[in-house]
Amino acid sequence: MMEKELPTLTLDYNTKKLIYSKIPSMSVSDTPWTLFLSWQALDFPGGKVAFTSEMNFIPESANERIPCYRVLDDNGEPFVSNNFVQVSKEVAVKMYSDMVTLQMMDTIFYEAQRQGRISFYLTTLGEEAINIASAAALSADDLVLPQYREPGVLLWRGFTLQDFANQCFGNKADSGKARQMPIHYVSKKLNYFAVSSPMATQLPQAAGVAYSLKMEGKNACVATYIGDGGTSEGDFHAALNFAAVLEAPVIFICRNNGWAISTPVEEQFRSDGIVVRGQAYGIRSIRVDGNDALAVFSAIHTAREMAISEQRPILVEALTYRVGHHSTSDDSSKYRPLNEIEYWKTERSPVNRFRKWVERNGWWSDKDESEHRSSIKKQLLQAIQIAEKTEKPPLGGLFSDVYDHLPSNLEEQEEKLRETIRRYPQDYPSDVPV
Amino acid sequence: MAASSMRRFGRLGCWVSRREFSTCDDKVVVQKSGKSMNLYSAINQALHIALESDPRAYVFGEDVGFGGVFRCTTGLADRFGKSRVFNTPLCEQVHLMGFILTWPHKQGIVGFGIGLAAMIVNEAAKFRYRSGNQFNCGGLTIRAPYGAVGHGGHYHSQSPEAFFCHVPGIKVIIPRSPQQAKGLLLSSIRDPNPVVFFEPKWLYRLAVEEVPEHDYMLPLSEAEVIREGSDITLVGWGAQLSIMEQACLEAEKEGISCELIDLKTLLPWDKETVEASVRKTGRLLISHEAPVTGGFGAEISASIVERCFLRLEAPVARVCGLDTPFPLVFEPFYMPTKNKILDAIKSTVNY
Ligand SMILES: Cc1ncc(C[n+]2csc(CCOP(=O)(O)OP(=O)(O)O)c2C)c(N)n1
Ligand SMILES: [Mg+2]
Questions:
Q1: What is the ipTM of this complex?
Q2: Which reaction equation describes what this protein catalyses (chain B) (predicted)?
């Protein structure tokens, strides 16, 4: 609107004439400098910029923090009806039961690591709503580039508890061929890219993948996840900028859980968190209560529609809390107060809040709860047992897939290794078939 | 179920414990008033001394404030304050930015070395050279965990020393034990050139030895003969030395006398010590965890062939990691084990 009212000044490089939108053109030499200054806008590459005589520095942050979109209050009651995308009974029940399943899987696998049965584990405790509700709002064709604390997306899409266990135990049934540390899941079938340990590398990739969806005219988007810590990496900024410039249909979902290992968000960034960065890159953004499954569902659902129909990136900052330790290599009691953890674990639990809502709708009962829990527990224990008994992948997997075909240096090394194994079988684990 | 998992764990545990570390004394560390401590405590002690002895020294990086993921920075923030020992946002490149370049002594980081590569390679390494020696990085030391640990997979067990050894302007140091780590780290911090200091992850907790309490430095770019012998020279660094030492002991039982050299500084490296040894033994074997192709062993081999061609009685042997990404369940197969080294010693001696 404002643009229309402003007179503009452009320089015609061929004729060396300045063209003022309101008056006939004149040559540079006979343009008084003062007149130039009095014009109200500059037609700068990228768009007109208004002049001002006031020297104002933009403040470092707004007076008010960006509010957080929420649907359910702490008691699981909707604030106002109809400010959210409706969820059917079927979807809601699956969302709730998957949140419980995820929580139970985390508890049991974590314990398995403590017992020395797997080498490493990392829980999603406290972030069940972001995991499951975002997955529920996406479609199965949408491609997911995860960080590492989003196994719920896979669970929602049908990765079985056995699949999870096989990966963590690194056996021959693992679809990633037992090459990565526990929790580095991958499933081409479920459109879930392989988890990679280095932070934020998934983001520029997500922008590129989204651009390819755009070029192929697919009715799908990319969803990529990142932690609060990960947003400090250069790759975060590169990815947002690329996605905006390429108008790529990608949803950047930031799980702001307050901590990056021992580093709190106050030592991670200034200003108002992640959501405000979107605008600087020209990306539409929203902040949601990450512990409110309905708010996450609605925001991602809407973000997805905009991303695909308008072909643009969207940034979603979900506020949540990492209730567990960073991983089994971490003891978070060394750097954060126990009552802070306890508060988020009990009073702000996303699982309890959502349960109240599904129960209030008459979709879930105590009986459903106990049946679901005992069935999942049984499945989990069985999955672990089977995964543990399943043998490791055969030795050839050490050399395959470095390239599409085995080059001669690897052929030679494999041959030599097999000879060494024959000579010193005691040096090698007996559960790897050679 | 529990019993079988314990057995499995037991086997793994046994494999782990066979990896020790090399305890051969360095002549420089004469005083033995030390306390028994592991590698991360020795690093911690060196950092305390560095901060104590130089008010312009800083320690910063991801999670260093509370003590670090590997406990190396425990107690430093309490003792020296949060302005000298501080967490950075999660971004490796930035650890080398403006601030540090203007200060004479500082040292970062705990993190992903490769993430830092552009800043190290293009900025830190060439800072002195490209400014006509008007600017330099002062005592910048970049600490990074390094190497195999038994369960790290691709990203947490790599040995990227060869990447950095191809960058003139930086020094690359890898210690073999707690005592060595302390003395070499102090030298690195006080060296006026940028240093990449790789700390073998395997040794953080496992390696325990007496470490003198006082402030001492061990020379950079000086290799050390840690075991004397006459039939073959073995060269290695870091955690791999203990594996090589075991192979030397086995070879001795079969009448082969091995000389073992800890290179310690890979760039710029001490060719003279290696050359003198090879002139004596006539044979050379190099071993490292990093993939054999393009590994630093290739550089050592080429240089020694240039210098000792006529003296060599067998081709230079390399027992190294395979040309694959660092594996997870296949880690024991990937590693340059004692028996792989032993076989190579024998075939080199019997060439
Ligand atoms: C490039 C890189 N640097 C450092 C690390 C070590 N690291 C692993 S997770 C992590 C913290 C990430 O925090 P955040 O992004 O907030 O995710 P959260 O763990 O809270 O889900 C760090 C520093 C890494 N994996 N990659
Ligand atoms: Mg976080």
A1: 0.84
A2: N(6)-[(R)-lipoyl]-L-lysyl-[protein] + 3-methyl-2-oxobutanoate + H(+) = N(6)-[(R)-S(8)-2-methylpropanoyldihydrolipoyl]-L-lysyl-[protein] + CO2
